[in-house]
């Protein structure tokens, strides 16, 4: 193990440090002997593969978890954080990878939860709404502070969560994959916020799988692999490909596989005048056999809802033809039977049963395949799990874990494995690589291309522009619930897509 | 900064939705009033309606407390038995003749009831939060305990307020009125107004909603979930004591069966009023409407002459279901 | 002649005896309305004191000239009744008397005799089996039950009858079955069971039969359900007697009230019905096969 | 698959956890048996224990059905009233003398009960899923309906099985035994075995758990949530019919109060048995243990001579709470 310690730059004072931190879950050591220092005014990125232990490390630093071994110092003094509230009092705030908001409260109520502004006996909603609106606007978002959080999209919730964290007086802000569910525009705004925070003198710790972003933002980078600290380095001079190599331990040279776009009239899925009330209007598109079709758009463009409408998960009106035959689906069971599967972007809320074992999750959608007579064939279920773990490279040290105990990226792989058990002909993947490390991304792209090569068709809904461009044969851009246009070939570039997605010419865009 | 034009229709939609959800129980109430006017000519008289509102007072006040408990994601099945227990103790106290002045006696008894109510609520809350027992089972157990203690206090008989002076001074609390509005009706509205203020306008109320909406979030926000939960049960206890305050002067007596089924009535009032049993949403005024609805159903059943009394229960059950369906369909249309 | 209305407020039919009350109230209501063309009788049932107070109020709203009430529990209903009385209506109180049962509460009082029901049973047991060891299955913890218990204790006073246990059977067959089953486990020898209610006797007899115990000599119930009266009539060894507590008393009160309204017969005062001991000899007089009870 | 050596302790730990959680109700049961042996010498006799198990049969079988409903995240408060309703109809049918042969008559009545049970369960399920009404309120309404219909059928009185031949042939179903084990006890175990098989070994059971665990995930996995939910209520209806089958021959009669509070007893049995009310976890055998625990508490209370009969209810309530505390503390230690 190489452990190169960088001499601290003069203008950054050390704020917090961890010494020999270790964490054990049920006998498994997921963090081993981690020592790192965090300096005021720096942006410190933590990168690593899925399951490397990044979230666990940050949770320890923010007082959400107690380390099994090791100690923390703040301003040189050893401290034991009694919990997140204690950490907050010391100026340490964590923006979770998971969304932690009360769905029944409004945006403003969530942002000020536990620290309400009071006016006499009562709470001052006016002030809080104004404060919340400002906090959200600072992040470049436009969300009504009186909206109930349960009605927001994942991305919007992510922004609310960030706004909430930044409201506390902070000396260290910890972001666990804050940009995973954001589109380029929100990402840019957030990155600016992050650099503002560091400029104001506070430290920023930050996890991301988007390595170019790390490159532009971070002052220093710490790499974790298998729970061990590989290195901490100055970001300057580290190229994304170097980072990937440090993370994965091998060369990652080519992220996107080659795929020849099919042409002609061999349409497997034709959607005409699809209306999803409240979300999408009059959407029409066609999908060829063996094609990878991308869907781009801003947060709230209605892509997710359109797809859910097509597969019968939401009330929708319109014509759908599958292999030239008109079909309509009242629920996901029917579309699955017809060979279409949809992988939700919300893997925790809609994808996996977090309280159930991996095997139960894996076979849930395709359970019919595991029925012998009237009984479930548990042996076959176990075999399927072994196979899925191998095939999708699900990193788990223990097959008896609950799905909720997997790291975020590995949950995503489990979800893919679950839906692939159905052997679908058309796969709709919503945000396929959200929160996934670069090595695994490569695997997922390979997998998508393989599906297309086998003559299956794939729809990829993604907010990550390079990914869409890299993997798709053709991209449909949605704006405010309507299909704005379609791009392919040399028109598939970020500039043109952003113009279509925002409806704003580059010259007008600030 | 995506686009401001899209926000507006969405928001308007939202508003319409919120409104209808909160208004639905009142529409159900209005429909029942219309239905009642067919049942009997005297139904829509001020006299009858005030009667009905007056006697819905205990359930309404208990249900207002239950709104807090349920909003925080809890449940309290012990309130009926608790009413019997508190009222029995209070009557025994007033029978004790320790205080000569009847007014002082009633005031002391009032203080006692509130104290016992808080103690009972606190006990419920602690059993649930410290013992980490499901509210359903914990309060079912407490229901057995309060009911059993009442039976034991009454030695199987009735506990009756004996002192006529005390009775005379206490009686108007149920039977008296202010400018024609019976005190119990006033009590409902005052309690509801205070409750609505606490739930919607104080940080404690906000925390109650947060705990019911997502316990983990509340915890991460530095809210002491156990404290908030316990407090809701304490409020419930206080409301039960408030209900006793009005209950005692009406019948001046309790037995071991006083208040049976009140817990179910209170919960029904809360749910009919639009509060979700899963927690996170609380509608105080809806609860009051819910309590009126339940009482009016009973009133209509009694005034009408068309229904066999053997079928009363069946029709009440059916009307509750229909009321919920009306609510749901109203909400869905929006 | 004016049209008159009698309001009848009685407990809901939640066990055998109250079912009998409802049956007789309806029967007599129909009969009276035929007899007096200008009479309207409204019968309302309520499950508990609080709702009965409401029912009384609602009857008043409907407009009545007289009230016949058999309270689920008398004390809590005193104020509600007084309210009616204060408006100058004629009030007939049936069966259950409040602690202060005087003219300020009612004009007419027709009653079975709860203490006597216990006393008659106690006396019979003391006379038939003077040194019996008795287990008691009580009803529910409310005053009527307590009065019956006190009456029973008075009935056996001075004899050698020993009470082994008293537990609540809630006037419910299933609970009585359970209680009896456990009595049989608990006590190796039981001579007599007193249940003060015929509904519960059904469960008790099943439990005894199942245990195949022969030490129990007989069971005394109460109220006079048609099934138990039939057993007495047929000379069933386990049920030699029954103590009458006729639900039909509500009808008596209604008839008297109608007479007061229409025939100007003065009927004020107190009418106490006996707690008659039903034996094989007189059982036929009390057997109403058409009653639900 | 990064590290295989660490797998073993993890799994063992997990097992310990799972085991204790499932075993806790049985430990509570064992503790009660010890307690009971102090209460009375005859407590630990085969006779007494078989009595207790036999009479717990209805609650146990109903509670097994409730395990499905609760595991899927639902609740059914109508089961007690449904028992009374189904049993009343069945007795009336057997009284109708339409079929001469008593055996055929009993078999026909059995079929009728199962059919009505399914119909009632289906009704409950559809009111909840199609009407989108909270199970608590929907089944509370249905409880009123079934209870009201029963009162009406019996005209407030008792419905008694009259035909002595039918009675003679039917009676052994409750009072008979196979190699000394009463039929009702056998029925408990057979029902539990079938239920455990369905819940743990079939795809339907898996779906029930998924729906209770997270409805959205189930829906996105192509499971028809409404269908699964409705089916659990149908199973509950069948179990209630099964309970009626055993209930009728015991007293050969029903009244309007038959089965009151059974719904609360059944739910208590389920929860004491380790099933969570929030859904997603179901323990069939725990439920059976829970039903035994409740019945044994009652039995001990009656056998002991130290407690005033007025306090029985209080002590029963306290014991239920203590039993839950024992469970929780066992689970936490692991
Ligand atoms: N509560 C838990 N119980 C058991 N194992 C856990 C628990 N939480 C995390 N783990 C394990 O710890 C390891 C590290 O998880 P962690 O969430 O820190 O990974 P990560 O680096 O954040 O990955 P990702 O990029 O996918 O979010 C994983 O193997 C995970 O399965
Ligand atoms: N439950 C809901 N109720 C009302 N509005 C909602 C709800 N969920 C989402 N919305 C709104 O619907 C619109 C589209 O949703 P969403 O943001 O998921 O679209 P998307 O194009 O899939 O974006 P994303 O990039 O987040 O996947 C947004 O304006 C969002 O606020
Ligand atoms: Mg992570
Ligand atoms: Mg989306």
Automatic annotation (TrEMBL), chain A:
What are the recorded GO MF terms, alphabetically? ATP binding
Which Pfam family, giving just one, matches this sequence?
Answer: ABC_tran
Is the keyword Transport in the record?
A: yes
Record domain ABC transporter: where: 16-251, 262-505
InterPro entries referenced in this protein's UniProt entry, alphabetically: AAA+_ATPase (IPR003593), ABC_carbohydrate_import_ATPase (IPR050107), ABC_transporter-like_ATP-bd (IPR003439), ABC_transporter-like_CS (IPR017871), P-loop_NTPase (IPR027417)
PROSITE patterns in the record: ABC_TRANSPORTER_1 (PS00211), ABC_TRANSPORTER_2 (PS50893)
Q: Which domain of life is it from?
A: Bacteria
Where does the sequence pass through the membrane? none
Q: Which UniProt keywords apply?
A: ATP-binding, Cell membrane, Membrane, Nucleotide-binding, Repeat, Sugar transport, Translocase, Transport
Q: SMART domains given for it?
A: AAA
Look up keyword Coiled coil and say if it applies: no
Q: Which PANTHER family match?
A: CARBOHYDRATE TRANSPORT ATP-BINDING PROTEIN MG119-RELATED (PTHR43790), D-ALLOSE IMPORT ATP-BINDING PROTEIN ALSA-RELATED (PTHR43790:SF3)
Q: Which family does it belong to?
A: Belongs to the ABC transporter superfamily.
State what protein this is by name. Answer: Sugar ABC transporter ATP-binding protein
Originating species: Aminobacter carboxidus
From TrEMBL, chains B, D:
Annotated keywords: Cell membrane, Membrane, Transmembrane, Transmembrane helix
* Protein's name according to its UniProt entry: ABC transporter permease
**What is the protein's species of origin?**
Aminobacter carboxidus
Principal localization reads: membrane
Report if keyword Calcium is assigned: no
Q: Where are the transmembrane segments?
A: 20-38, 58-91, 103-128, 181-200, 231-248, 284-304, 310-326
Q: Which CDD domains match?
A: TM_PBP1_transp_AraH_like
| Tagged with keyword Transmembrane | yes
Q: Which domain of life is it from?
A: Bacteria
In terms of InterPro entries, this protein maps to: ABC_transp_permease
- Pfam families documented for this protein: BPD_transp_2
Stated membrane topology is: Multi-pass membrane protein
Where can this protein be found?
Cell membrane
């Amino acid at each position: 193990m190489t452990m190169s310690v960088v001499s601290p730059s003069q203008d950054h004072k050390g704020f917090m440090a961890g010494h020999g931190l270790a964490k054990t879950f049920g006998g498994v050591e997921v963090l081993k002997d981690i020592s790192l220092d965090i300096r005021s005014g720096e942006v410190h990125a933590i990168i690593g593969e899925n399951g490397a232990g990044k979230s666990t490390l940050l949770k320890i630093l923010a007082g959400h978890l107690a380390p099994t071994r090791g100690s923390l110092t703040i301003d040189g003094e050893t401290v034991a954080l009694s919990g997140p509230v204690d950490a907050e009092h010391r100026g340490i705030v964590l923006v979770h990878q998971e969304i932690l908001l009360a769905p029944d409260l409004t945006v403003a109520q969530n942002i000020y939860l536990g620290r309400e502004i009071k006016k006499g006996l009562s709470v001052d909603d006016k002030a809080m709404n104004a404060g919340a609106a400002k906090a959200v606007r600072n992040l470049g978002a436009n969300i009504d502070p009186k909206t109930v959080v349960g009605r927001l999209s994942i991305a919007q919730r992510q922004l609310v969560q960030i706004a909430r964290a930044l409201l506390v007086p902070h000396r260290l802000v910890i972001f666990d994959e804050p940009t995973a569910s954001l589109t380029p525009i929100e990402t840019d705004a957030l990155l600016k916020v992050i650099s503002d925070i560091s400029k104001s003198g506070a430290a920023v710790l930050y996890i991301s799988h988007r390595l170019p972003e790390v490159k532009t933002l971070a002052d220093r980078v710490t790499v974790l692999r298998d729970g061990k600290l590989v290195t901490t380095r100055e970001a300057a001079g580290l190229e994304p490909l170097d980072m990937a190599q440090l993370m994965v331990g091998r060369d990652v040279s080519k992220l996107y596989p080659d795929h020849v776009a099919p042409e002609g009239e061999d349409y497997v899925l034709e959607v005409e005048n699809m209306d999803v009330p409240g979300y999408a209007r009059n959407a029409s598109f066609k999908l060829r056999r063996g094609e990878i079709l991308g869907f781009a758009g801003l947060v709230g463009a209605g892509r997710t809802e359109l797809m859910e409408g097509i597969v019968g998960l939401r009330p929708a009106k319109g014509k759908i033809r599958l292999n030239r035959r008109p079909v309509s689906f009242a629920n996901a069971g029917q579309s699955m039977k017809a060979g279409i599967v949809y992988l939700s972007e919300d893997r925790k809320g809609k994808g996996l049963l977090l309280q159930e074992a991996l095997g139960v999750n894996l076979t849930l959608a395709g359970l019919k395949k595991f029925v012998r007579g009237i009984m479930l064939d548990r042996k076959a279920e176990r075999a399927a799990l072994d196979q899925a773990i191998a095939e999708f490279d699900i990193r788990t040290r223990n097959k008896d874990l609950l799905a909720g105990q997997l790291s975020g990226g590995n949950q995503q792989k489990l979800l893919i494995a679950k839906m692939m058990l159905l052997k679908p002909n058309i796969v709709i993947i919503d945000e396929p690589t959200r929160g996934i490390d670069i090595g695994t991304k490569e695997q997922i792209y390979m997998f998508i291309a393989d599906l297309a090569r086998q003559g299956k068709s794939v729809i990829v809904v993604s907010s990550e522009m390079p990914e869409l461009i890299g993997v798709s044969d053709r991209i449909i851009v949605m704006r405010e619930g309507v299909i704005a246009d379609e791009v392919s070939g040399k028109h598939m570039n970020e500039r043109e897509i952003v113009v279509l997605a925002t409806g704003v010419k580059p010259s007008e865009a600030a | 900064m995506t686009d401001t034009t899209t926000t507006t229709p969405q928001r308007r939609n939202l508003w319409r939705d919120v409104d209808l959800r909160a208004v639905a129980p009142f529409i159900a109430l209005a429909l029942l009033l219309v239905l009642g006017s067919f049942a009997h000519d005297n139904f829509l008289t001020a006299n009858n309606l005030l009667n009905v509102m007056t006697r819905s007072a205990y359930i309404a006040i208990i249900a207002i407390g239950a709104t807090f408990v349920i909003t925080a994601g809890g449940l309290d099945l012990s309130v009926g038995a608790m009413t019997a227990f508190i009222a029995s103790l209070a009557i025994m106290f007033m029978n004790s003749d320790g205080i000569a002045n009847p007014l002082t006696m009633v005031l002391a008894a009032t203080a006692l009831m509130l104290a016992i109510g808080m103690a009972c609520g606190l006990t419920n809350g602690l059993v649930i939060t410290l013992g980490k027992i499901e509210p359903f089972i914990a309060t079912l157990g407490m229901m057995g305990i309060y009911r059993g203690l009442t039976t034991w206090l009454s030695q199987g008989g009735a506990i009756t307020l004996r002192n006529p002076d005390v009775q005379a001074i206490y009686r108007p609390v149920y039977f008296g009125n202010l400018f024609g509005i019976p005190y119990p009706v006033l009590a409902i509205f005052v309690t509801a107004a205070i409750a609505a203020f606490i739930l919607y306008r104080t940080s404690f109320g906000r925390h109650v909603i947060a705990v019911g909406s997502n316990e983990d979030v509340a915890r991460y926000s530095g809210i002491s979930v156990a404290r908030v939960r316990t407090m809701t049960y304490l409020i419930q206890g206080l409301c039960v004591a408030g209900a006793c305050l009005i209950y005692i002067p009406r019948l001046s007596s309790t037995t071991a069966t006083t208040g049976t089924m009140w817990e179910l009535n209170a919960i029904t009032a809360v749910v009919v009023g639009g509060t979700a049993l899963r927690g996170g949403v609380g509608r105080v005024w809806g609860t009051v409407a819910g309590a009126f609805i339940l009482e009016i159903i009973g009133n209509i059943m009694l005034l009408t002459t068309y229904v066999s009394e053997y079928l009363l229960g069946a029709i009440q059950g059916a009307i509750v279901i229909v009321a919920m369906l009306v609510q749901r369909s109203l909400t869905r249309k929006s | 002649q004016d049209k008159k209305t009698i309001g009848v407020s009685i407990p809901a039919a939640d066990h055998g005896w109250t079912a009998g009350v409802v049956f007789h109230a309806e029967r007599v209501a129909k009969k009276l309305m035929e007899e007096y063309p200008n009479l309207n009788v409204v019968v309302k049932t309520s499950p508990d004191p609080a709702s009965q107070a409401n029912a009384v109020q609602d009857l008043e709203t409907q407009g009545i000239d007289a009230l016949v009430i058999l309270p689920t529990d008398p004390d809590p209903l005193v104020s509600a009744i007084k309210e009616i009385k204060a408006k100058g209506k004629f009030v007939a109180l049936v069966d259950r008397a409040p602690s202060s049962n005087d003219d300020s509460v009612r004009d007419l009082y027709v009653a079975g005799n709860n203490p006597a029901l216990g006393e008659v049973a106690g006396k019979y047991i003391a006379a038939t089996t003077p040194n019996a060891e008795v287990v008691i299955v009580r009803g529910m913890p409310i005053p009527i039950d307590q009065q019956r218990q006190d009456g029973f204790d008075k009935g056996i006073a001075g004899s050698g009858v020993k009470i082994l246990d008293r537990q609540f059977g809630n006037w419910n067959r299933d609970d009585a079955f359970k209680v009896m089953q456990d009595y049989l486990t608990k006590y190796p020898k039981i001579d007599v069971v007193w249940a003060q209610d015929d509904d519960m006797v059904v469960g008790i007899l099943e439990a005894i039969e199942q245990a195949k115990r022969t030490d129990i000599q007989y069971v005394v119930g109460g109220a006079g359900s048609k099934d138990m009266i039939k057993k007495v009539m047929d000379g069933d060894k386990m049920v030699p007697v029954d103590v009458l507590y006729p639900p039909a008393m509500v009808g008596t009160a209604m008839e008297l009230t109608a007479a007061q309204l229409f025939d100007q017969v003065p009927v004020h005062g107190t009418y106490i019905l006996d707690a008659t001991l039903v034996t094989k000899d007189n059982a036929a007089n009390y057997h109403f096969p058409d009653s639900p009870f």
